[in-house]
TrEMBL record:
This is MFS transporter. One of its GO terms (molecular function) is transmembrane transporter activity. The keyword Transmembrane helix applies. GO terms for cellular component: plasma membrane. It is a multi-pass membrane protein. It comes from Actinomadura macrotermitis. PANTHER family: INTEGRAL MEMBRANE EFFLUX PROTEIN-RELATED, MAJOR FACILITATOR SUPERFAMILY ASSOCIATED DOMAIN-CONTAINING PROTEIN. The chain crosses the membrane at residues 12-35, 47-65, 225-246, 258-276, 288-306, 312-330, 351-372, 378-396. InterPro entries: MFS (IPR011701), MFS_trans_sf (IPR036259). CDD domains: MFS_MefA_like. The keyword Cell membrane applies. The lineage of its organism: Bacteria, Bacillati, Actinomycetota, Actinomycetes, Streptosporangiales. It is found in: Cell membrane. Keywords: Cell membrane, Membrane, Transmembrane, Transmembrane helix.
Length: 414
């Protein structure tokens, strides 16, 4: 592995596979709710359930996957999870073609995809830690982050055009194919990966399912970052349906304006991810993590003052631009901190527990804020989330996480 920005052929294939599947995901953004509404004539409660229940069930199913992934070669797991998502998504257009598509099938597919996504992320993070040197992790995470925001910019407009011409099922096909291409890319990486060895020969027990959470909670830096991330992401995600109601129904924005309000600011995420490494080099990772963690919490409360017309549209774009820019810097630094503080033998379990919690908390808070939006109105509920977000910086790590050595993995119990 050469120093600098060249991270090697294997990382190049992994990065390309990630970009392909991310583009497919954003091409199909909103496809499931549209299928539920246009094809199955689902009501608001069913659409809300599709967003919450699928993610929550997927998170629950993924709980035993962390320990399972830990003691297996990561590259075959990545390929398997891509193929699972490909097969699950492909059942949607097949069922549609034969006229047997049901709402229950949409729920089941969303749960399977959510569980496979968690397993893929945990395996990917653990594999990345063994693939690259520690000093290259921030560069790699910044590249993933910039790719995520790039696909966010170009995916929804292209997907919207495809939906307008071919219907929402066509974008689900594109998403499925993207996972197949991702699996082929990871297969093309090559290289030898040794099989991880269990510390003992005992079978996995029920208590082993909590290993990831035990490790996170035992580390002061990871613990604070864990709660900060789960609460921040959950509150931000919880306001998205309410903001859609406020903009599209109460304030009369056109759908294209709503799409523009969230697509254009994604440029901030691309810029932020590009600046993450230079900022860390100049100021240090802890300072950048805390500063951007504070700044990202300030922006969302501005959405409570949203009004109609051009001024309202510019307000949303400005708030989202500031929020996404801060997240674009924060996310790769946070991801690198997690990997640096987690031993390779515990990475999959820790990352799986992290992903399960953030996905479940987002689903739970989305449901709670849906109720609050019905009782208080969308604007008040959005404002309440903004106020709570102002408190999330209190959960950020207080000490420089780079001043402590990486913890050693605890011995397994016999």
């Amino acid at each position: 592995m050469r120093s600098g920005h060249r991270l090697g052929r294997q990382f190049g294939w992994l990065w390309g596979a990630y970009g392909t599947s991310a583009l497919g995901t954003w091409l199909a953004f909103g496809a499931f709710p549209l299928i539920a509404i246009q094809v199955l004539h689902a009501g608001p409660a069913e659409v809300a359930a599709l967003s919450c229940v699928g993610a929550a069930v997927g998170a629950a199913v993924a709980v035993p996957l962390g320990p399972w992934v830990e003691f297996r070669r990561k590259r075959p797991v990545l390929i398997a999870m891509d193929l699972v998502r490909f097969a699950a998504l492909l059942t949607i257009p097949v069922a549609f073609a034969f006229g047997v598509l049901t709402f229950l099938q949409l729920l089941l597919v969303s749960a399977v995809v959510a569980a496979a996504d968690i397993a893929f992320r945990s395996a990917s993070g653990a594999y990345l830690k063994t693939l690259l040197r520690a000093e290259d992790l921030l560069v790699a995470n910044a590249r993933f982050e910039s790719t995520a925001w790039t696909t966010t910019i170009i995916g929804p407009p292209l997907g919207g055009a495809a939906i307008g011409l071919l219907g929402p099922v066509a974008t689900v096909v594109a998403d499925a194919v993207s996972y197949l291409l991702s699996a082929l890319g990871i297969r093309a990486m090559g290289g030898h990966e040794p099989r991880p060895e269990r510390p003992d020969a005992a079978r996995m027990r029920a208590t082993d399912l909590l290993d990831g959470w035990r490790y996170i909670l035992a580390d002061a830096t990871l613990r604070r970052l864990f709660f900060n991330t789960a609460l921040f992401n959950g509150l931000v995600m919880a306001t998205q349906p309410l903001l859609a109601v406020l903009m599209l129904d109460r304030l009369g924005f056109a759908p294209w304006q709503y799409g523009l309000a969230f697509a254009a600011p994604s440029i901030g995420g691309l810029l932020g991810s590009r600046l993450a490494r230079p900022l860390v080099t100049r100021f240090g990772p802890h300072q950048v993590l805390v500063a951007t963690g504070v700044l990202r919490a300030i922006w969302p409360i501005g959405l409570a003052f949203l009004g109609p017309g051009t001024a309202g549209l510019l307000l949303v774009i400005g708030v989202e631009l500031g929020l996404i820019f801060c997240c674009g810097v924060f996310n790769p630094v946070s991801a690198t901190c997690r990997l640096e503080r987690t031993p390779a033998g515990r990475a999959a379990r820790t990352l799986s527990a992290w992903a399960v919690t953030t996905k479940a908390s987002a689903a739970l808070l989305t449901a709670v804020w849906g109720v609050l939006g019905s009782l208080l109105g969308p604007r008040t509920a959005i404002g309440l989330a903004g106020v709570l977000l102002l408190a999330t910086p209190l959960l950020l790590p207080r000490r420089d996480h780079t001043s402590q050595p990486e913890p050693e993995p605890a011995r397994s119990r016999t």
